[in-house]
């Protein structure tokens, strides 16, 4: 699509040349000799960023389904806590939630003997479980609100028809309600995934070594200001582009219309 | 016993950390307001460039919104912080002045404003597109100059469409100020971490700060709902 004649109008050719000139200038006059030395570390950092992203989205979505369902159709003693959870998550900065979990729970756990002696302790002593937990809860909070709207948006007649056919309530949820709600959420999921990717570097502030932390390490070691940051920005843009392409491919495969 | 100890930690006089926390809150709100204002100005320019600009302006606006929305705010803050200070000092040096130290508040407003501007561009562009085209065409047919059309027709008519998105943006502005803690600026989150680290009362302070942020968010949600009702007065109710 990018190679069509309508794309390459004269002003775009000039702009592309300007961008090319800037890239060449950056490549020649900035220092890049540190790249080979830190490349393995960077690859590991990208890997960690990606799996934190994927796991937090999967767990967050699994949590968001009951959160949305409780708000859309639950009794008040389920709906009210779910709504409060979503408001608190959406109303406070993620950085604050992350630090509350890491410093708060992190200082509480060592004082409790049975946690210290449990088999989970070697994992709980590391930083990444707290980062993953904070990102998961945050995604669940935002997506729970979206799921609430999606559950409410499914046509009443569908549910009534299922009930009239004598379908048990759980089967209705599994076969009718949830698939249609998820179908409504899918188009927004790509954007939410990009937002979640942009939230992952926060885990570097609690000593998790993701790609952002690698760039910070390079800046400390080499006293370079711009080079690592520019490369980091390019890496994030590349990951964003891949996410957008994956979701665009998904869009073409899902049926556009359901009853 | 525990409750009085908690209250002592949060009281305003020096052994308690109440006063620094409130100063941090003030700094956060100040930066959020400034960044939001700057973001709205940039967003208006960007939206008009995307909708009515020439080919170059349109493409530049597209590059601006795409790049800013694809790179994490944290990375942008660092890049713009260093690049911005460097650029200002280069200009000052070439004009024959001395280097200056840019204040944290000014840098924070500038950096977060640029980030906000990209999102505001998209919100405002969508809202302007939702204005019935006939209204703007009628104004043009009457011979109104473009500035007057924007002021009298486009902007008032798009406001009800834009307000929900603008409300979300304001909440993002208040929450994004917390990111300045990473570059060491003493806003609410950074002050909270210092207080918590000094007293070891992590839960107390992070929850107190969370309550402050939540209060801002709930208050602004209520305020924006009222603003939208006011902007929509006279319009027929869509659904009841």
Protein described:
- The complex is a heterodimer of chains A (259) and B (240).
- Chain A is flat, with a radius of gyration of 23 Å.
- Chain A has helices spanning 10-29, 35-73, 76-91, 94-108, 113-117, 121-124, 128-153, 156-164, 169-199, 211-222, 226-253.
- The mean pLDDT of chain A is 88.
- Chain A has a domain at 50-203: MetI-like fold.
- Chain A has 259 residues and is an all-alpha fold.
- In chain A, α7 (128-153) crosses α9.
- Chain A contains eleven helices and no strands.
- Helix content of chain A is 79%, strand content 0%.
- Chain B contains nine helices and no strands.
- In chain B, α2 (18-52) packs across α5 and α6 runs antiparallel to α7.
- The radius of gyration of chain B is 22 Å and the shape is flat.
- The interface between A and B is large, with 39 and 41 residues.
List keywords for this structure.
heterodimer; A: 259 residues; MetI-like fold; 11 helices; flat; B: mainly alpha; 9 helices
Brief write-up:
The complex is a heterodimer of chains A (259) and B (240). By secondary structure, chain A is mostly helical. Chain A is built from eleven helices and no strands.
């Amino acid at each position: 699509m990018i190679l069509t004649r309508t794309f390459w109008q004269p002003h775009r050719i000039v702009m592309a040349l300007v961008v090319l000139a800037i890239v060449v200038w950056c490549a020649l006059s900035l220092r890049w000799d540190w790249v080979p030395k830190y490349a393995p570390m960077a690859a590991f950092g990208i890997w960690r960023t990606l799996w934190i992203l994927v796991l937090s989205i999967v767990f967050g979505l699994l949590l968001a389904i009951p959160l949305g369902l409780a708000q859309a159709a639950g009794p008040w003693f389920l709906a009210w806590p779910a709504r409060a959870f979503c408001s608190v998550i959406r109303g406070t900065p993620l950085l604050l939630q992350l630090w509350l979990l890491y410093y708060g729970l992190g200082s509480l756990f060592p004082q409790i003997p049975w946690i210290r002696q449990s088999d989970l302790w070697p994992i709980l002593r590391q930083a990444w479980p707290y980062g993953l937990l904070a990102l998961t809860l945050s995604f669940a909070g935002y997506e729970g609100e979206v799921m609430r709207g999606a559950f409410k948006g499914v046509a009443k007649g569908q549910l009534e028809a299922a009930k009239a056919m004598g379908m048990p309530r759980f089967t209705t949820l599994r076969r009718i309600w949830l698939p249609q709600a998820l179908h409504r959420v899918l188009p927004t999921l790509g954007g939410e995934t990009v937002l979640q990717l942009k939230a992952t570097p926060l885990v570097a502030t609690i000593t998790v070594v993701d790609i952002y932390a690698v760039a910070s390490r390079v800046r400390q070691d080499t006293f370079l200001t711009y080079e690592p940051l520019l490369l980091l920005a390019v890496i994030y843009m590349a990951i964003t582009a891949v996410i957008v392409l994956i979701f665009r491919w998904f869009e073409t495969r899902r049926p556009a219309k359901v009853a | 016993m525990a409750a009085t100890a908690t209250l002592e930690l949060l009281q305003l006089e020096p052994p308690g950390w109440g006063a620094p926390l409130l100063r941090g809150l003030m700094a956060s709100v100040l930066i959020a307001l400034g960044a939001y204002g700057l973001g709205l100005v940039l967003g208006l320019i960007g939206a008009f460039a995307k909708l009515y600009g020439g080919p170059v302006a349109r493409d530049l606006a597209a590059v601006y919104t795409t790049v800013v929305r694809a790179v994490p705010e944290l990375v942008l803050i660092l890049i713009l912080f260093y690049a911005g200070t460097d650029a200002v000092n280069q200009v000052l040096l070439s004009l024959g002045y001395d280097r200056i130290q840019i204040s944290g508040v000014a840098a924070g407003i500038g950096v977060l404003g640029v980030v906000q501007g990209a999102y505001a561009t998209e919100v405002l562009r969508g809202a302007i597109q939702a204005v019935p085209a006939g209204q703007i065409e009628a104004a043009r047919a009457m011979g109104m100059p473009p500035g007057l059309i924007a002021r009298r027709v486009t902007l008032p008519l798009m406001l009800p469409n834009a307000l929900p998105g603008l409300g979300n943006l304001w909440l993002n502005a208040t929450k994004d100020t917390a990111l300045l803690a990473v570059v060491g600026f003493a806003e609410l989150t950074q002050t909270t971490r210092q207080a918590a680290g000094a007293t070891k009362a992590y839960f107390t302070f992070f929850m107190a700060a969370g309550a402050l942020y939540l209060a801002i968010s709930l208050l602004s949600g209520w305020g924006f709902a009222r603003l939208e009702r006011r902007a929509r007065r006279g319009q027929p109710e869509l659904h009841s």
